[in-house]
Amino acid sequence: MIKPMFSTCRHLLPLIGLTGCAALFAADDSRPNIVLIITDDQRWDQLSYTGHPVLKTPNIDRIAQEGASFDNFFVATPLCSPSRASFLTGLYPHTHRVFNNDKLGIDVISHTLMTFPRQLREQGYETAYIGKWHMGLDDSRRPGFDSWISFKGQGIYIDGVINDNGTRRQLRGNMTDYLNRRAVEFVNQPHDKPFCLYLGHKAVHNPFLPSQRHEELYSDYEFQVPPRNEADLAGKPVLTRKRPKLDRSKMEGIGPEPAEPRRGRGRDPQSIVRDQLRCLAAVDEGVGQLLAALESTGELDNTIFIYTSDNGFFMGEHGSFNGKRMPYDEALRVPFFIRYPKLIAPGSNRDELILNIDVAPTLLDLAGVESVIPMHGESLVPLLQDTNANWRKAFLAEYYHEKVAAKTPTWKAVRTDRWKYIHYLIADTQGDPFGYDELYDLEADPNELKNLVNHPEQKTRLTEMKAQLNGMLNQFN
């Protein structure tokens, strides 16, 4: 249970007013620092703290042990670019308009986003972005960052090229190690303001290339791919429908940059999973280095330290390995740990439905900054202060069709603590616009294997879930 320990300035605004809040901080700017670490394609259960059978992540685990873990933290869309934009803005993709990973103007759009670091900087924070931006191929500095270290698009693991505050540099070595080092350098440098560090790792995204020192880790781990479940797939005809073969000659100017090679490493599930875990070893080391740097500077307990990921990942579930984009929990659910002892008691655990759109309003709230834009997400602060605080009972998730992922249509979904309804925005082979829809009872069927959309006993439930989805779409229009 999280124990309330203090009140934030924003929640005092009705009493003291915005001017009073600014004056309070001007006299003694003791606002918290912020370190947010976001990995790529990391499942909720891909940490030792969340139950992985062999993976060791002691430094990441420390964040949860000394802070809070959220068992039901979800992303609003299971895809890199739009999910990252939602973390930064507190908005659903249909509003921030970074819809997908196709190169369809998101370079320009991402320069216009009113991100939480941009707002923090305007209110006296020093801000740094280090790592993967991945909203278009443009690696130029986005508004709101005093320091900018990034790379084009997806970036590469080995000997990459980075934009270091306007200067492009050819690196030698593994990208994860480089990003860790630069993040520690930022924390260790003198700061006369509170700071916000956003560290976006390329790991653990394909092609899963670990640092050389980790090559032998987990070599004896025997990963078991979930067996193909024909009954599961029979209830998901959208997954098995025939689609024209992707014509990559028509992807020029639209699709992502060519993928970095696997360098001869195996492409079988065992090889990929072992390399995923090896990549996480370097991420965990970096977390430990950052925690140590904050301790050495005396800033650890005045720093909000967050660890999370941009989306989950399929490891054989529903017939998909090495994929995402679909509305099932394996892709939507990610780890979320937060350490901030001024507010959160060690070892706290929550099971409310939390979204990545809640991160931006939470951090602005804790910094005493009133957002200049309305946000879809909600600050977690009232929930952290009062275990009985009202909180959402359902959430909206969405995905927009990409030309580079022809098999996955646009979909909208609503999920409660027990039910999930999925609506695909295409007609089935008989022309029924609801013919591909899915309904799951997550209490009886947590792995989403039995589609109940046509079950006669669930007609009322289906009607209710459709109405709830429509209501949420209207609410967040």
Main sheet record: 10 strands, mixed
What share of residues are in beta strands?
Answer: 15-25%
Spatial strand sequence of the major β-sheet: 7-6-5-4-8-1-9-12-2-13
The total count of strands amounts to 18
Q: Count of DSSP helices?
A: 14
CATH superfamily of the largest domain: Alkaline Phosphatase, subunit A
**CATH class designation of the largest domain:** Alpha Beta
Q: Classify the helix fraction into a percent range.
A: 25-40%
Q: Could you list the spans in which at least 5 consecutive residues all have pLDDT below 50? A: 1-27
Question: What is the alpha-carbon Rg in Å?
Answer: 22 Å
Overall mean pLDDT stands at 91
Under CATH, the topology of the largest domain can be stated as Alkaline Phosphatase, subunit A
Number of domain modules: 2
In CATH, the architecture of the largest domain is 3-Layer(aba) Sandwich
Distance between the termini: 34 Å
Any idea what the shape is? globular
> What structural category do the secondary elements indicate?
alpha/beta
Mind explaining what this structure looks like?
The chain is α/β, with parallel strands linked by helices and 477 residues long. It has helices at 13-27, 58-65, 80-89, 93-96, 106-112, 116-122, 175-188, 230-234, 237-240, 269-296, 329-332, 359-366, 381-385, 459-475, and strands at 33-39, 68-70, 73-74, 126-131, 147-150, 161-164, 167-170, 195-200, 303-309, 314-315, 321-323, 336-339, 348-350, 354-355, 394-399, 411-416, 419-424, 438-441. The chain folds into two domains: 10-390, Alkaline Phosphatase, subunit A (3-Layer(aba) Sandwich), CATH 3.40.720.10; 411-475, Arylsulfatase, C-terminal domain (2-Layer Sandwich). The protein is 29% helix and 17% strand. Strand 10 (314-315) and strand 11 (321-323) form a beta hairpin.
